[in-house]
Design goal:
With 118 residues, the chain is mainly α. It has three helices and no strands. α2 runs antiparallel to α3. The longest helix is centred in the last third of the chain and has 37 residues. The mean pLDDT is 81.
Length: 118
Amino acid sequence: MITRAQTKADKQTSGQAGAGGQSPMAGFTALPAGWFSTEAIEKLGDMGAEYMDFLAERIREDVRTQHAILHCKDPADLRKVQEDFLKTAADQYAAQAGRMTELTNAFMAALMLPRIDD
């Protein structure tokens, strides 16, 4: 007599083989062990936090600029506000690119850790 558990196990086993009896995962290599290291995950979180901080600061800068534009009295004031906005944005984006490069390098270094089982 075939039990329900045996039938379920047979279906799972037969579903693992694709056309020609080959597993659908054949040819795929496992991810490096570094992907699962605590250090790599922490570095990835640092990158995300840095990016979100940058976005928040840029939004604050946009709001400050809009406020300044609304209070301009003449075209010369408007031009000064726009020049300041563009200079600040260029400086912030350049600084952020450097910080993200440093964080990415740290993340990549964490991925290059030796395998745990080696």
